[in-house]
Design goal:
The protein is an alpha+beta fold and 249 residues long. It has a domain of 148 residues: FAS1 domain. It has 9 helices and 6 strands; from the N terminus they run ααααβααβββββααα. A 6-stranded mixed beta sheet has the order 2-1-6-5-4-3. The longest helix has 30 residues. The radius of gyration is 30 Å and the shape is globular. The two termini are 14 Å apart. The protein binds 2-acetamido-2-deoxy-beta-D-glucopyranose (5 copies). One 2-acetamido-2-deoxy-beta-D-glucopyranose (NAG) binds next to loops.
């Protein structure tokens, strides 16, 4: 009887060790899932440089970041972004940004984006006016002209004259250049005779809701799986330990 009891204790202890070993391997599995590699993250690129906080805020507030993600994932032409520095924004007449309605803010941001990859050497051969994300340049509302010679790349909108002052990022598909002035499109900033009151601004709430609706990653599901695994483990371990203790008494 005594020998049988010892044998049982030994077997159960072995099972316990074996179970501990297996469950540790199981518990490690979720952490090893590889991170998905998506399209280039423009926000991240701009954040790294540290001097584009206002432009980043505008990109997010206008939802243009989301457009960029989709377009960068889905284009053969690539994309060029002229990113104005924080200094560029603070040298605007104060209250300028706040005076724009939602639609104008979107247009202003889109005016800084050309739906085509342009390397510095390609600036010498672009045909003016360039088409930007803000719309067709042909109707004269959003003209953007670029002239280049040597290392100088001049940009003019009809209201703003500036030049490219640095390359932030380039990978053959996306190019991000620094500009030290906000590119002001004629359509928004041209001095005009007093016009009828602008259309009421569209609700920002609707946009925010759209963001909130975007599907989250499945972390919660994975967490609950891990929790139930641990719970199960504990129940089984408790059971086996109880038997071992009872038998050894
Ligand atoms: C891009 O990077 C920013 C900052 O690092 C991060 O907050 C954001 O979630 C990223 N977006 C995507 C789609 O990965
Ligand atoms: C990128 O494009 C592929 C194929 O068109 C699509 O399956 C995927 O969901 C897209 N990813 C993002 C982040 O838009
Ligand atoms: C760029 O602008 C500067 C200053 O306005 C001017 O001197 C230069 O000639 C321009 N270069 C080109 C290529 O347009
Ligand atoms: C841009 O270039 C086009 C074509 O050369 C020209 O007709 C137009 O006047 C230019 N606009 C500005 C603002 O320089
Ligand atoms: C921009 O440059 C053009 C041509 O060089 C000039 O006619 C115009 O006055 C300049 N505009 C500003 C705002 O400096």
């Amino acid at each position: 009887m005594m020998i049988m009891k010892q044998h049982l204790i030994f077997t159960l202890s072995f099972l316990l060790l074996f179970f501990l070993h297996c469950s540790r391997i199981l518990a490690q599995a979720p952490a090893q899932a590889p991170a998905p590699s998506g399209p280039t993250n423009v926000t991240k690129i701009l954040e790294k440089s540290g001097q584009f906080t206002i432009f980043i805020r505008l990109l997010k507030a206008t939802q243009v970041t989301n457009q960029l993600l989709g377009q960068l994932n889905n284009t053969n032409n690539g994309m060029t972004i002229f990113a104005p520095t924080d200094n560029a924004f603070s040298s605007l007449k104060s209250g300028t940004l706040n005076s724009l309605n939602d639609e104008q803010q979107v247009e202003l941001v889109q005016f800084h984006i050309v739906p085509m990859y342009l390397s510095t050497s390609q600036f010498q051969t672009v045909s003016n006016p360039l088409r930007t994300q803000a719309g067709d340049s042909g109707d004269g509302k959003f003209p953007l002209n670029i002239t280049s010679s040597g290392n100088t790349v001049n940009i003019t909108t009809g209201l703003t004259n500036t030049s490219v002052s640095g390359t932030i990022y380039t990978d053959g598909q996306l190019a991000v250049y620094q500009v030290d002035q906000v590119l002001q499109p004629l359509q928004i900033f041209a001095p005009r005779p007093p016009a009828p009151a602008p259309a009421p601004a569209k609700s920002k709430k609707k946009k925010a809701a759209a963001v909130a609706d975007s599907p989250d990653d499945n972390t919660p599901t994975e967490n609950s799986k891990a929790v139930s695994l641990i719970t199960m483990q504990n129940v089984v371990l408790f059971g086996i330990s109880a038997i071992v203790i009872t038998l050894s008494l």
